[in-house]
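Hey team,

Filing this mostly as a record. A colleague (T.K.) asked me to run one chain through the structure pipeline before their review meeting, and I want the input and output archived in the tracker in case anyone asks later how it was produced. No errors, nothing strange. Just documentation.

Input sequence:
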Amino acid sequence: MHSKLSRRSLVKGGLIAGALLPVAGLVSRSAEAAALPPLDPSDPTAKALGFVNDGSKVDTKAYPTFKPTQKCGTCAQFQGKPGDATAACTIFAGKSVPQGGWCQVWAQKT
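Output structure:
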């Protein structure tokens, strides 16, 4: 017995597969971001940039330009969506930062 594959079923299968691939990519990206280790404030780069996990604990004498509204969650470098507790940061590659953190590289998200 030979099963014939119709052109219609082949096209239909291809369209379904083409629609599911981007969705699978989005799911894997969010899983990768969640798997990033948190940035350690004692990391040399973090220390050099004045990183703190809690923006309310910024030393305002050392960083006089700091404003209380400046947090990782509102920074252009923060790779998460609004409401994400932690996310990747373009400054600290391979690490996640808390939404409420801060460093002196903070730049307003547009």
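Quick notes for T.K.: Strands lie at 86-88, 96-98. DSSP finds two helices and two strands in the chain.
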